[in-house]
Amino acid sequence: MPAFNTLDDLSADSRVLVRLDLNSPIEDGTPQDNRRFERHAETVRELAEAGHRVVLLAHQGRPGRDDFTSLGGHAEILADRVGRDVGFVADTYGDEALEAIDALDAGEILLLENTRMCDDELPEASPEEKAETEFVRTLAPLFDAYVNDAYSAAHRKHASLVGFPLVLPAYAGRVMETEYEANTAIATREFDGPVTMVVGGTKATDVIGVMDALDDRVDRFLLGGVAGELFLRAAGHPVGRDVGEMDLFDEQWERNRELIESVLDERGDAIRLASDLAYEGPDGERAEVPVDDIGEKETGYLDVGATTVADYEPAIRESDAVFVKGALGVFEDERFADGTVGILDAIAETNCFSVVGGGDTSRAIEMYGLSEADFSHVSIAGGAYIRALTGEPLPAVETLEAAAERRRD
């Protein structure tokens, strides 16, 4: 069990400062509803229904990027998900924000402006330094408690994530609690049968590090995506290379070649590689080719083939636990969703403990009509999920644990 306090430990009738992660795709200046709003709404609703005065912190984008924008639209989406009004003030810790916080009644909800519009928020620094910022010192005295529900940002040392737990009683929200328990299960739980990890996506550097770190916890790895092609390259196949204007493979190969070759050499019996790959044929339709028939890479491969899916399915169906990190193909294009969806279907039909990690991969569940209830946990975290799998510390979780320890003392 986690060593932090949760909402079950929160005193009644509190004025609560709650950190969410509502970072979303922005289209034409408008935030798009996604799974994060739905998940965080559970924590916010629970706090409001319990009669707490609820003030929310969240971020969107980074300064200088196109998706760096105000949170006014986020408040509207969250209100729909919570089923209650969510007030918004275009200020974080100035007079306007302080007045709005002071005016809150029991059960009311207020979202403050984008935390990354504050100079104190973004620079990575120790929790002790963040606790001394004007941002934290101004807001903290107005609250009885701090709740961190932003597990997907827990790998960051930002003021709103690590500063407040040093100066306020601190608790984990429901998203933080469930994400932590599911994503650390691979290291903390004992499983009776085989443990399988499906590895894909475009960020091969991340997942290769995960494979190396988990070599004693995972019985077999099923590979696809960019990482899968790089391992095929290490195995002697003429793939895993950039062609045309592509810029996915060669740089990651140079950075990870030694690690890929050592992992393949040491754990080759546990690593399953694609036997066929899919690409866009001359007529624009999906086409497939056996890996052994590829003499030279002349086109981009966008999915694993049907034979690979058929090869991977038995390994999943006999597993006691399956962890997914990354899609096996470009599932956003329906022509190249067969690998990702086929594997997710097999997991959904198997009575195993299953975690689907990463915001991108979890979107395939919704896009292709799968039921989230058929998986033990669908994570909304990306970088934090990687950290949890590799056993690296999550600063925001550590500060929650330290806060709980101080209360026990």
The CATH class of the largest domain is Alpha Beta
* Estimated share of beta-strand residues: 5-15%
| Quaternary structure type | single chain
Quote the average pLDDT. 94
Uncertain runs are: none
- Cα distance spanning the termini: 19 Å
What fold name goes in the CATH topology slot of the largest domain? Rossmann fold
C-alpha-based Rg, rounded = 23 Å
CATH superfamily (homologous) name of the largest domain: Phosphoglycerate kinase, N-terminal domain
Brief summary of the model shown:
By secondary structure, the protein is an alpha/beta fold. The chain has helices at about 35-50, 70-80, 95-100, 125-130, 135-140, 160-165, 175-185, 185-190, 205-215, 225-235, 250-265, 305-315, 340-350, 360-365, 385-390, 395-409; strands at about 15-20, 25, 30, 55, 85-90, 110, 145-150, 170, 195-200, 220-225, 270, 275-280, 285-290, 305, 320-325, 355, 375-380. About 40% of the residues lie in helices and about 15% in strands.
Sum up the structure in keywords.
single chain; Rossmann fold; alpha/beta; six-stranded parallel beta sheet; 2 domains; elongated; 409 residues
Would you write up a description of this structure?
This protein has two domains: 7-180 and 393-408, Rossmann fold (3-Layer(aba) Sandwich); 184-378, Rossmann fold (3-Layer(aba) Sandwich), CATH 3.40.50.1260. The protein has 409 residues and is α/β, with parallel strands linked by helices. Helix content is 38%, strand content 15%.
